[in-house]
Amino acid sequence: MPTSEITYLGNLRTESVHLASGTKIITDAPVDNHGKGEAFSPTDLMSNALGCCMLTIMGIAAHTHQIKMDNTKVSITKIMQSNPRKVAEIVVLFKMPDNNYSAKQKTILEHAARTCPVALSLNPDVKQTITFEY
After folding, report:
1. Number of neighbouring beta carbons within 10 Å of residue 24
2. Nearest to 94 by CA among 80, 111, 110, 81
3. Are the CB atoms for 116 and 51 separated by under 8 Å?
4. 121 and 69: one domain?
5. At residue 91, what are phi and psi to the nearest 5 degrees?
6. Whole-structure pTM over 0.90, yes or no?
7. CB 107, CB 58: distance < 8 Å
8. One domain for residues 63 and 129
9. Are residues 19 and 59 in the same domain?
C-alpha cells in the first residue's frame, strides 16, 4: 500500500497527503531555484527528516533506558552545492535540556541519533555534521 500521494499544484508547488492519517504537507521551490519559498522545499524536508528521525530514535532509546530528553531542540542547516545542485551537507545541532546526563546516557543518545534510518539511508556524499550541546 502506498505511503503518500503527491499532487503538483502548479507554480512549483506540491501537496503531499499521508494516506494513513490524511496529514498534508505543502512544498514550494526555494527562492534561489525559481520558487516563492513560501513553504519547505523538498530538500528542506529531506534535511528536516534527518533531525526528526534522530529525535525519534533517541526518544525510543531514552524510553528504553529511562533517560529524560523532553524539550530537546534540534537546529537544522542545509548547505547546497551548485553543480550538480544537491544537498552537500546537513548540519544538525542538538540543544539538550539541562538534565545532568551521565557519560553513558550521552553515549546511548548520540549513538541512537547517528544510527537512525534516515542518517543511514542518506548518500555518503551528503556530509552530516552533528553536534550535541549539553
Report:
1. 11
2. 110
3. no
4. yes
5. -100, 120
6. yes
7. no
8. yes
9. no
The per-residue pLDDT for range 24-83, each reduced to its tens digit, is: 999 999 998 998 999 999 999 999 999 999 999 999 999 999 999 999 999 999 999 999
The CA R_g of the chain, rounded to the nearest whole Å, is 17
Same domain, 66 and 106: yes
Written as one letter, the residue type at 131 is T
Amino acid identity at 103: A
d(CA 74, CA 57): 14
Total domains, the chain: 2
Q: What is the CATH number of the domain that holds 110?
A: 3.30.300.20
For 83, residues 6+ apart whose C-beta sits below 8 A from its C-beta are none
Question: Using the 8-state DSSP alphabet, how is residue 67 labeled?
Answer: -
| Packing angle, helices 103-114 and 42-64, rounded to 10 | 140
